[in-house]
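User: If you would, consider this record:
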Amino acid sequence: MTTSPLETQPVLDLPALDAHLRGVIDGGVAGALTASLIGGGRSNPTYRLSDGARSWVLRRPPYGHVLPSAHDMVREFTVIEALGGTAVPVPRAVHLCEDTDVLGAPFYLMELVDGVAVGTPEQAEALTAAERRRLGFDFADTLAALHAIDPETVGLAEFGRADGYLERQLRRWERQWEASRTVHRPEVDDLLVRLRNSLPDSRFPGIVHGDVKLDNVLVDPSDRGRVTAVLDWEMATLGDTLADVGIMLGFWDVPGEAPNPITRGLAALDGFPSRDEMVERYAVTRGIDVPEIDWYVVFADFKMAVIMEGIAARHANGETVGEGFDGVADMTATLLARALDQASRSSVAALRR
């Protein structure tokens, strides 16, 4: 993880945070709190917090404009707490604060995991081709392990409703587009018609992460082909687990093709498994036959376009912290174009229209 000093306003209210944590953290707070913004994320501000003796990670919702039902810290804390001790590596959940009087919004603390970030091509280039190949397959195995968990066994039976998940997702992201769009884009209307007309039957319910990409994992520093933590569970719920596979593939760049503007060709680097290899590995590990996946990949690009539009709107209003926001507005159009291109080339007739 990379960090930077808190030079951009607004900043954490450290005295208020100190007063709150002294009564709730096991072992208390050893000394004066310091904080630094962890770079890389464009959504929820994430900070490294230290009392001089111990360090944690603090997550809170974005400042300013927030889409309805998005950036849910309670949801994120609930799922990482539930998955602790399972085959899915997650940071240890430390403390959830729903009292908005402390920092102006709900927030939570989790364990600071010793891990290497691989969310950019530059970071992934530090790995060997053999390490990248092992990492790709371990990533697919980790996703299959998540989807194999019975939600009831980890206390998540009421975490969401798998029935009707895809229909609800389409309605939700259409509403969120309307809530955050900065300009009218007719391609959104086109995409929504195609997606509605080709909605697949859900066959594999389970726990859905909702934002499956290499940028949301950490790698073991001593074994850089192994995932040591899966992060950013803010969109987790119960639903159609193939939606996660679609997101994984949407972020899995293909050599020789225009890359996803978010990942910038990351998975096209030498060594990473191909898309087909990733799907095959996932299917074998989970023990299922993966059906036609185009709908899920198209929907993934549409969903990411809506998210980028929301981030661009917050950035234009001066409501973001940290770096990495230049060019975000351009990503919306690129992702929508990718989605339409994938739909037009699909073997699913209703997606092609």
Summary: The two ends are 44 Å apart (CA to CA). The first strand starts at residue 3 and ends at 5. The domain at 3-111 is CATH 3.30.200.20 (Phosphorylase Kinase; domain 1).
